[in-house]
Amino acid sequence: MSFDLVFFGGTGDLTWRKLMPALFQAFRHGKLPADGRILAVARDTQSDEQYRAWLRERFQDVDTPKRPTEEEFSRFAEMLFYRRMDLSQPQDYARLKEWLEERRADTVVLYLATSPYLFPVICEQLGRAGLNDPHIRVVLEKPLGHDLRSAQEINRVVRSVFTEQQAFRIDHYLGKPSVQNLMALRFGNVLFEPLWRRESIANIQITLAESIGVGTRGDFYDRTGALRDMIQNHALQLLTMIAMEPPASNDADAIRDEKLKVLRSLKPFAMESVLRDVVRGQYRAGAIDGKPVPGYLDEQKVPADSQTETFVALRTEVQNWRWAGVPFYLRTGKRLAARDAQIVVNFRPTPHNIFGGVSQPNKLVIKLQPEDGLELHLLAAKGALQHDLLSPVFLDLDFDKAFPTERVGAYERLLLDVIAGRLNLFVRSDEQEQAWRWVEPILQAWSLDTSGPRPYKAGSWGPPAASALVARDGFAWAEEQ
Fold first, then answer.
1. Can you tell me which residues form the catalytic site (predicted)?
2. Fewest CB atoms within 10 Å of the CB: 178, 303, 425, 460?
3. CATH number for the domain including 14?
4. What is the DSSP string of 100-145?
5. Looking at the predicted structure, is the pLDDT value of residue 444 above 80?
């Protein structure tokens, strides 16, 4: 199969840090179709050879499973091309069309690795240039809008040029191997299905914690915040996959239909419930791994009076028959105690404890990063002399050990899926808009609440109010149990 892949924003951080390395890994794994061209477009003036040399230098700073050798990169670079392009100029789109029509590739992928405010401009220009044939696909990188209205406007313009089947809204969390194992756990095994409901589950916790700060992205992050950056997309996508009903098939729309039902079933927020069930925080100076780190207000390009949240914890419910009354706790933040992404399913205790001591309920831990695996926490007898006392034990499945071959990265998987036309791991426009619709009352409530985010020390697990949020229901976060 032949393909042409065009990166708008070809010299941007996303392209050289994530997308090009992912394509190189696909090339090295022998998964990238051989008859392909990769074109980077940007405003800089440089030749193909200059761009290849520039990218080769950048690859030295990229965290990849294996550094490319000179010979490997040289073979990969044969697929790389560069064109200068002003995204506001129609004649540049005409020249792009000429380049693409030098040959008629089976598939053309147009990846918008630019700021979202440029999405409508680019799509309108692509439509005017006739670059929207059925064999052309467009990839939209998050964040898709700043609120519901801007997301709807982006989708309106995209739909005026491309069909829904041509639009690939990317959320790289959905490409992680651990998230694929979440789907396999739920729908490839019968073991947990009888337990996957309100009668057996006490609560579900989703944590997406980062130990890093905002780094050099202070200006971008201050316009975004943790709610938009992580909850509206990554955390809600994980919630839908945990809570969705079994789809009729592995077809993309069958899966996305069920995810949309979950989003529509989420308990809506109002001003009163935001104040009660949502905690926002902002990190102050502290220590990570024993080294001092600055507070958010001291980071580069962050205003000294910023009210942007770097931490969010919230409580919600899925209001349907399967999940009625089960609290879902979502939490994300920067400069937390550890880099840790996991889903914890806490089961209800046994109805009657016949053993001495405290009966600790079972739980299933789905580890997303940095480890990738499953832990099933159970109780077992300590030994013959203490047969009436139970001790916690757990079964640990490490996917990196179970599957010793090199794992496919998130962007590698998603880029190959775009080229192949597989939509299963991409977000449909109605999903995306419903997520914004649910999040927007929180943003509106915060705009009226002058108290601002609660401070928390870098290296902690966030403001104490986040612990109180869960304790109010008689539960605790995983690290506090």
1. 234 (proton acceptor)
2. 303
3. 3.40.50.720
4. HTTS--SEEEEEE-S-GGGHHHHHHHHHHTT---TTEEEEEPSP--
5. yes
Range of the domain at 115: 3-169
Q: Do 109 and 185 share a domain, yes or no?
A: no
Residues 322 and 354 in one domain: yes
Q: What is the DSSP string of 385-408?
A: GGTTBEEEEEEEEEHHHHS-SPPP
SS3 of residue 297 by DSSP: helix
Residues 114 and 228 placed together within one structural domain of the fold: no
Binding region for substrate: 172, 176, 210, 229, 334
> Does any domain span residue 447?
no
Transcribe 234-251 into DSSP letters.
Answer: IIHHHHHHHHPPPPSSS-
Strand partners, 84: 42
Residue 123: name the closest of 172, 170, 171, 167 by CA: 167
Residue 353 three-state SS? coil
Is 98 among the domain residues? yes
SS3 for 360?
coil
On whether both 361 and 461 belong to a single domain, the answer is yes
- CA nearest to 182, candidates 393, 425, 415: 425
Q: What are the binding residues for NADP(+)?
A: 43, 86-87, 142
Question: How much of the chain is helix, strand and coil, in % rounded to 5?
Answer: 40, 25, 35
Residues 206, 296: one domain? yes
List the catalytic residue out of 29, 135, 146, 234. Answer: 234
Q: Are 332 and 466 in contact (CB under 8 A)?
A: no
Does 159 share its domain with 226?
Answer: no
DSSP result, 152-192:
HHHHHHHHHHS-GGGEEE--GGGGSHHHHHHHHHHHS-SSS
Residue 153 in contact with residue 188, Cβ under 8 Å? no
State pLDDT tens for residues 119-175: 999 999 999 999 999 999 999 988 788 999 999 999 999 999 999 999 999 998 898
- Which CATH number characterizes residue 462's domain? 3.30.360.10
Is pLDDT at 384 greater than 70 in this prediction?
Answer: no
Higher per-residue confidence, 190 vs 205: 205
For residue 422, is it within any domain?
no
Name the 3-class secondary structure at 227. Answer: helix
Mean per-residue pLDDT, 224-231: 96
Residue 359, pLDDT > 80, answer no
Q: How many residues does the chain have?
A: 481
Task: Give the Cβ contact number of residue 365 at 10 Å.
Answer: 18
User: How many domains does the chain contain in total?
Assistant: 2
Indicate if 234 belongs to the active site: yes
